[in-house]
Amino acid sequence: MIRLHLELGTITEITIDAPHGGYVASRTDEFHEQTENLLTAHLAVMLAGRAGEEVITETVGANGDGETRGSDHELATKLAYKMETAMGFGQRRPLLYRCCTDWPLHLAIDPELAEDVNRRLEAAYEAALKMVRKQVAAIDYLYLQLLHHGTLEGTELETVLAETRKLIRK
User: Which residues does residue 23 pair with via DSSP β-bridges, in sequence order?
Assistant: First the structure.
């Protein structure tokens, strides 16, 4: 829903029938400069599931067993880490490249860096919460369509997304 609201790529499939929960498949139609604003929007998209749980169900479930690789939580943390250490968007040392292959260890031994990464994640999460709160009607509609269909793709997806766009509040 947040990906649709922010117009980040073309959504090609949405499902709730995946083995480890639902997902949204999308593709990027055009090259976008990797700006801090664009990457922050991607962080908000990655954290939108958690924000949706908090707003709609008023509870947040565990992120798998804590060992799940490739989760939205892990991917968001890794992107925020790279923004701080390798992409030139660091809050304290933007010109210093200090990215490590063992980035979780780097965060564990550098509390200042961990705080910067966490601050970035919290800001993106607050943005996701704000968007979810504003888009409850569109989310509810999409949710009901997914309950009915399980997976949306092709012309069925396009029809549902067109109706969802009508419910999105700018």
Answer: 15
